[in-house]
Specification:
Elements lengths: L3 E7 L14 E6 L8 E6 L3 E13 L5 E12 L1 H7 L4 E2 L2 E13 L2 E16 L7 H9 L2 E17 L2 E19 L10 E22 L2 E23 L2 E2 L5 E3 L2 E24 L5 E12 L13 E11 L2 E12 L3 H4 L16 E15 L2 E18 L21 E21 L2 E15 L5 E3 L6 E10 L4 E10 L3 E2 L4 H11 L12 E2 L3 E13 L4 E9 L11 E4 L25 E4 L7 E9 L1
Antiparallel strand pairs: 1-2, 3-4, 3-32, 4-5, 5-7, 6-8, 7-8, 8-9, 9-10, 10-11, 11-12, 12-15, 13-14, 15-16, 16-17, 17-18, 18-19, 19-20, 20-21, 21-22, 22-23, 22-24, 24-25, 25-28, 26-27, 28-29, 29-32, 30-31
């Protein structure tokens, strides 16, 4: 957060310069380092320690400011130590780093270089005292090693009535994921999941931005080189057989190795103009197209033409009517594009760009410079959404199975829709108070192979959040946050297949004939934070107490499927007193509640100098 100057979220009608987005664009603008003196801060809490340093680089000019400045930060978790003390089996362990260097090469030219990176080592360890719930965590949670980085440079040059941007960036990440039956073994015959994947993207963008009379315009080009490799294995389920050995349901393993590289390219143009007296009407129109060298239709830029238009009309001095219509495209993820079948052929080259059409209209009321109310209705229609060729299920309905999502053959036959209404209130910080309130009622549905609309994995029906901040005297500040959401849909277990597969995969099998037919209860959480700030001439100290889920609300989640274990945890209880069979037919199935009322209190400080 020490780097951020401004954050803008656009849920529709976003500028045509942004590629590969279907629903929204979140734009971060970073600030520059202090050009006059060295300064920084040290931050610590119950989960991590972090620091930021900034200041001038090189000589200063006659005004006492430097032409080159830097920002540098680093963060290290110690959450793994806390969880060890609490005797929890999970051990999250991460680092991240960030830097920015800004250099004014001349009065008209600025060069910015920036980078960020992260290292994540997530593992599971056997606790000193185990429970059925902890055993499920051990068996179902893979060990994860991941690193990623992004580096880039941006050259901005002022021209007459505008500016030119040229940006070059490089992003790379690596994932290593392992899961074994029982959670503790390293025996390859017991392996349930393996991933060794890497992605690298090198991107060049150039755009021109300017004004001509009452017109504002921008246009540009993008070229990107993508590399992706993956060695993947996933045991999804064992065969289900009857007493005579007849296969009732075949087992499913996914195994492949792939490496692909391809180019992506695109172009855009955007025009904006105000009309009528007092500029009461503002119109903005954009056009974008994108392509790639990998998919069958990727070179046909006519298939991804994406026009969009928006308007804002001042009904009253403080009331605006806003509306937009637009089309947006997104290429399928690399996990889909790089998947190979049993013969080693790319199975998804015929995959099409996912398309989304937006229709949005609403009112905006600005009663004061720092106060804003909006009421907006939206409808978003999705086309060409990936559908699993194996199960006939839209990938939008498969939940958060990050380890396997997309590593399969798909068809671009899915449809989807999301529609609803949203109310938003914002009171920017003035004197002592700030507040943000958001209320959204919506539906989100997608089709699979059968063409029937089914609630998507994130169709909670409503979302609400409220944030309130109050500044008191003598350096005291209070922040309150409340969030609630409707129950998320989920798919019940296929009990027969789950029993047969559990000892092999450590996980249940979902009954896709009842896809997302069940719903959890609603979600609620209340957090608060209390700060005490102490100021000196060159230093300041912020002491804070942060409590998440302060009302100890128990939020529901999908239960965990397991087999009942012996009291000493040495094995499983069986219905016939004999050793458990490989197909689990004499096991005692158990559905464990997975709801919690976890309260996370944190005491920390921020020291600034």
């Amino acid at each position: 957060m020490s780097f951020i100057e401004d954050v803008t979220l656009s849920t529709s009608a976003f500028n045509a310069r942004y590629d590969n987005s279907l629903s929204s664009v979140l734009q971060f603008r970073q600030r520059d380092g202090n050009p006059e003196r060295l300064q920084g801060n040290l931050r610590t809490s119950g989960t991590e320690v972090a620091g930021t340093l900034e200041g001038p680089l090189g000589r200063k000019d006659s005004s006492g400011t430097a032409r080159t400045t830097f920002l540098l930060s680093a963060r290290r978790s110690y959450l793994q130590l806390l969880f060890k003390v609490l005797d929890l089996p999970i051990r999250p362990d991460y680092y991240d780093f960030q830097y920015k260097i800004t250099s004014k090469l001349s009065p008209k030219t600025t060069l910015t270089t920036l980078g960020l990176g992260a290292i994540d080592n997530f593992r599971v360890e056997v606790p000193s005292q185990t429970t059925p719930e902890k055993e499920v965590t051990i068996r179902n949670t893979p060990a994860l090693q991941q690193w990623n980085y992004t580096v880039g440079l941006n050259l901005r040059h002022l021209i007459r009535k505008g500016f030119v941007n040229v940006a070059l960036s490089r992003t790379q990440q690596y994932n290593k994921v392992d899961l074994f039956a029982g959670g503790r073994s390293t025996d390859e015959t017991q392996r349930v999941l393996l991933t060794r994947s890497g992605e690298a993207e090198t991107k060049l963008r150039a755009d021109v931005n300017g004004t001509a009379g009452r017109w504002q315009y921008s246009y540009g080009l993008m070229a990107q080189y993508v590399q992706y490799d993956n060695r993947f294995f996933r045991r999804l389920r064992r065969p289900v057989v009857d007493g005579q050995g007849n296969v009732l349901q075949p087992g499913v393993d996914v195994r492949f190795q792939t490496a692909v590289d391809f180019a992506r390219f695109g172009a855009f143009g955007q025009l904006t103009r105000s009309f009528l007296s007092g500029d009461r009407l503002t119109l903005s129109a954009g056009l974008r197209t994108d392509g790639n060298s990998l998919t069958t239709e990727g070179r046909d830029l006519g298939r991804t033409l994406s026009p969009r238009i928006s308007l804002s009309y001042a009904l009253l001095p403080t009331v605006n009517f806003n509306a937009s219509v637009g089309r947006y495209y997104k290429i399928a993820p690399n996990t889909i594009l790089g998947f190979r079948d049993s013969l080693g052929n790319l199975a998804n080259q015929a995959t099409r760009y996912i398309r989304s059409d937006h229709y949005v209209a609403g009112l905006e009321w600005l009663p004061a410079p720092a106060t804003r109310f909006t009421l907006e209705g939206f409808y978003k229609k999705y086309h060409n959404y990936p559908v699993s060729a194996r199960d006939g299920i839209s990938l939008a309905n498969l939940g958060g199975d990050f380890a396997a999502l997309g590593n399969e053959a798909v068809t671009s036959t899915g449809q989807g829709q999301a529609y609803g209404v949203e109310f938003f209130f914002q009171q920017k910080f003035t004197k002592k108070v700030f507040a943000v309130v958001s209320l959204t009622a919506f539906r989100s549905e997608f089709t699979g192979r059968d063409g029937a609309y089914v609630p998507s994995a994130w169709d909670t029906r409503y979302l609400a959040s409220a944030l309130l901040g109050r500044r008191f005297g003598r350096g005291w500040e209070l922040g309150l946050k409340y969030r609630t959401a409707g129950g998320a849909p989920y798919t019940p277990f296929n009990l027969a297949a789950s029993r047969a597969s559990y000892l092999t995969t450590g996980a249940p099998v979902l009954d896709y004939s009842r896809l997302n037919t069940e719903r959890l209860g609603s979600f609620q959480q209340f957090d608060f934070r209390l700060d005490k700030r102490l100021n000196w001439r060159r230093f300041s100290l912020d002491l804070f107490l942060d409590v998440q889920n302060a009302f100890v609300i128990k939020n529901p989640s999908v239960g965990n499927y397991s087999f009942q274990r012996l009291p000493d945890n040495s094995g499983y209880v069986t219905s016939d007193g004999q050793p458990i069979r490989a197909d689990g037919s004499n096991a005692v199935p158990l559905l464990l509640e997975n709801s919690s009322a976890l309260v996370v209190p944190t005491v920390g400080f921020i020291f600034e100098f």
